[in-house]
Amino acid sequence: MLDALANHNRLAAAALANSRAYLSGDLVLIASENATFLKMMRENARTKADIRAAVSEVTGKTCRLGPYREPEDEAAPTEVGGQKLDQLIARAQAQGIDVTIKE
Asked: Are 48 and 37 in contact (CB under 8 A)?
C-alpha cells in the first residue's frame, strides 16, 4: 500500500511508515501515532485524496478514510497493578459509599 501511495504522495507515504490500516467494507481505518500524518489528514484534502487513490489501486475499491482507535479494554480497571481499581475505590469511599474488599 505504501509503495502505491509513494507514487502519489511521498511525504504521506513516509509519514505512514510503521502504521497499520484496517479495511472494513468501504471504510479504511488508519492506525498511526505520527502527529505529522494525523495533522495532514485533518488539514490537507490532497493527502486524503492521494491515500484514497492508493487504496483504490491496491484493492480496486473506493473507500472512506478514518482514524483507527484501539478498543477500550473492559478488563482495564484491574490492570496496571490495580491502579485504576484503587482510584475507583478511593472515589467511592470519598463519596461516602461503603466499600468492602474481599480477597
From this structure: no
pTM of the model: 0.65
pLDDT at residue 74 in the model? 54
* Euclidean distance between CA atoms 37 and 13, whole angstroms: 9
Is the alpha carbon torsion for 9, 10, 11, 14 positive or negative?
A: positive
- DSSP conformation letters of 49-96: HHHHHHHHHHHS---EEEE--PPPPTTGGG-GGGHHHHHHHHHHHHTT
The alpha carbon of 103 is separated from its chain's Cα centroid by a whole number of angstroms, namely 37
Report residue 12: phi and psi, to 5°.
Answer: -65, -40
Strands 27-31 and 64-67: parallel
